[in-house]
Amino acid sequence: MTELSEDYQRNDVYAAMCPCRDMLDLLANKWSALAIGALEDGPQRTGELKRRLEGISTKVLSQTLKKLEDHGLLIRTIYPEVPARVEYELTQLGLGAAQPLKQLRSWVEHNVGTH
Amino acid sequence: MTELSEDYQRNDVYAAMCPCRDMLDLLANKWSALAIGALEDGPQRTGELKRRLEGISTKVLSQTLKKLEDHGLLIRTIYPEVPARVEYELTQLGLGAAQPLKQLRSWVEHNVGTH
DNA sequence: GACTGATGCTATCAAATAGATACTAAGTGC
DNA sequence: GCACTTAGTATCTATTTGATAGCATCAGTC
């Protein structure tokens, strides 16, 4: 086993200074979890996301999507139509993150109000 | 298939008014995800949790644990020793929630800094 | 018997974030 | 010119977070 193959073991979400804390903070968030889940269905534009993520404000939606883009989880594409069309699409990384988030949402839906 | 067996389908985290939104908001949170993960190792007292959840403040730890208790995810036990000993332990519900959260933490640790 | 130490919680203040709403930009159609 | 559409920013307030200090309890020490 080479040292390179063990690289991932250096990441520890319990360590305050570990860079993966940022990612956990980003993903362990209501709106991120919902946005990534919605985008699993394919690229979507802003208005559609706003409608699906019931209760989110314009500002928080913009901020959430920007943070996800900055972390490489999704790609933002502007189509120079009029009025402007903006689409968001998950990257491979985002598709990967979507899996555990889907399980979390699913667990919540199946276990609330049943105990 | 009876109606009762379909009950869980009424929960939809995308619906703003669904009670499961509260649970998603609680679990999709950095400190909740870390606290529940730590408690998977068994009951632990406050100081131990504070040490493991590097960077958390006393106040936020208290608040986080209280919210988790209020939602039935953990049980708080006070042992009348001196100085007082307080232990937190996951309930069955908490143990269930721990699974998807573990996968999320694991995904983060394996996918940060590798793209 | 006052003094220190340990533990867990709350009180207090500043800083950051969320949320609600209004406004801007750019071009189309009337 | 004027209204309409879409996506985003600006603005203001409310809520939450974070850092610290303080409190209560009582055992052990001198």
Automatic annotation (TrEMBL), chains A, B:
<dbReference type="InterPro" id="IPR036388">
    <property type="entry name" value="WH-like_DNA-bd_sf"/>
</dbReference>
<protein>
    <submittedName>
        <fullName>Cinnamoyl ester hydrolase</fullName>
    </submittedName>
</protein>
<feature type="domain" description="HTH hxlR-type">
    <location>
        <begin position="18"/>
        <end position="115"/>
    </location>
</feature>
<keyword id="KW-0378">Hydrolase</keyword>
<dbReference type="InterPro" id="IPR002577">
    <property type="entry name" value="HTH_HxlR"/>
</dbReference>
<keyword id="KW-0238">DNA-binding</keyword>
<keyword id="KW-0804">Transcription</keyword>
<keyword id="KW-0805">Transcription regulation</keyword>
<dbReference type="GO" id="GO:0016787">
    <property type="term" value="F:hydrolase activity"/>
</dbReference>
<dbReference type="InterPro" id="IPR036390">
    <property type="entry name" value="WH_DNA-bd_sf"/>
</dbReference>
<dbReference type="Pfam" id="PF01638">
    <property type="entry name" value="HxlR"/>
</dbReference>
